[in-house]
UniProtKB/TrEMBL annotation:
One of its GO terms (biological process) is regulation of DNA-templated transcription. It comes from the Eukaryota. The lineage of its organism: Eukaryota, Viridiplantae, Streptophyta, Embryophyta, Tracheophyta. This is F-box-like domain superfamily. Residues 105-383 form the Tubby C-terminal domain. Belongs to the TUB family.
């Protein structure tokens, strides 16, 4: 029996079927997996570390695309020792350009080339699904579902609930990852994540409270998206600006880097905490970064022959739409020079555009994550009559 078949058979034996992912710690799926491990791992846990490392490295190098990438996830599902070894071998998207585990969706994208995805919109249900791949026509059934969002109407504005699952949008579920909320006019959006930022926030004692709440109900303001009002009703694309509260401007300066989260905190499980930051809970506090990264939409040019505004999407966008945009780093903010290298100022960090009816492409790269990029693109779907 080949090595690949051994891993697949072991993967089925512990009951992990369908679309592959490692459940966040603290979830019911994770608890079930732990129970199965105790019954099945005895014959696998005693493998010599050198042999185990060689097995996982060979599988990881051979399977770089989905659905073959499931074999790598299967290795991490065998037992604890296999999982730890797999986590050491598999690199973060910033270095590998690959999405493997759910935590990859919270990690920054690659620096060299963008990760290419597409979004499907279901008008009847108000659900938006993010897939890994070039387009539905090219990827077909091999498309990997990354994230889903459901639009919820509120009296004060719209809200998009983002989930790791295609159908589970409950905020108490372990699949819940964050949300996007707009104001009444649809000119300002706030991105919330249910995981705390990695940077150290030293808040004074007066800004700390001690409610004992579940981590699934926590919300952290990680970004603000602002659309400029079009009072004169002039023709042209929307103007937008994104303030990334969880990403410092130093991340894109020379020699800069950003810390990547390596695992989810416990979700959907009540846990007593002695103190909780003012920024957590549903209080909407913002992070304490003095100089956050600011993104702005790249200015298009007017094409005389086509009589329309144009941007170079390099073949990734084929249908003209007011929703289409490209985001680059803002070189200056409020009259202050941000010391961003010239090549970084021209580099497109996120681009989004239409390629068919209810089909849109989304390409993102370092320093934003798939979740942050998806949330920014969701803001473009909301109706904005005062901005057009």
């Amino acid at each position: 029996m080949s090595l690949k078949n051994i891993v697949k058979n072991k993967y089925k034996a512990i009951g992990r079927r369908g679309r592959s992912h490692i459940a966040p710690e603290g979830s019911s799926a994770s608890s079930s997996l732990s129970t199965n491990e105790g019954l099945n791992q005895s014959i696998w846990v005693d493998l010599p570390p050198e042999l185990l490392l060689d097995i996982i490295q060979r599988i990881e190098s051979e399977q770089s695309l989905w659905p073959g990438r499931r074999d790598v996830v299967a290795c991490a599902s065998v037992c604890k020792s296999w999982r730890e070894m797999t986590k050491e071998v598999v690199k973060v998207p910033e270095l590998s350009g690959l999405i493997t585990f759910p935590i990859s969706l919270r990690q920054p994208g690659p620096r060299d080339a963008p990760i290419q995805c597409f979004i499907k919109r279901e008008r009847a249900t108000g659900i938006y699904r993010l897939y890994l791949g070039l387009s539905p026509a090219l990827s077909g059934d091999k498309s990997k579902l990354l994230l889903s969002a459901k639009r919820v109407r509120r009296a004060t504005g719209a809200e998009f609930v983002v989930s790791l699952s295609g159908n589970d949008f409950s905020r108490s579920s372990s699949n819940y990852i964050g949300k996007l909320r707009s104001n009444f006019l649809g000119t300002k959006f706030t991105v919330y994540e249910n995981q705390p930022p990695l940077f150290n926030r030293k808040l004074p004692p007066t800004m700390q409270v001690s409610p004992w709440v579940s981590s699934s109900s926590s919300s952290y303001n990680i970004a603000s998206i602002l659309y400029e009002l079009n009072v004169l009703r002039t023709r042209g694309p929307r103007r937008m600006q994104c303030i990334m509260h969880s990403i410092p401007i130093s991340a894109i300066q020379e020699g800069g880097k950003i810390q990547s989260p390596m695992e989810f905190t416990n979700q959907g499980k009540k846990k007593k905490k002695p103190l909780m930051d003012f920024c957590s809970g549903n209080l909407g506090g913002e992070s304490v970064i003095k100089e956050p990264l600011v993104l702005k939409n790249k200015s298009p040019r007017w094409h005389e022959q086509l009589q329309c505004w144009c941007l170079n999407f390099k073949g990734r966008v084929t249908v003209a739409s007011v929703k289409n945009f490209q985001l680059v780093a803002a070189a200056a903010e409020a009259g202050k020079n941000m010391n961003i290298p010239e090549e970084e100022q021209d580099r497109v960090i996120l681009q989004f555009g239409k390629i068919g009816k209810d089909i849109f492409t989304m390409d993102y790269r370092y320093p934003i994550s798939a979740f942050q990029a998806f949330a920014i693109c969701l803001s473009s779907f909301d109706t904005k009559p005062v901005c057009e």
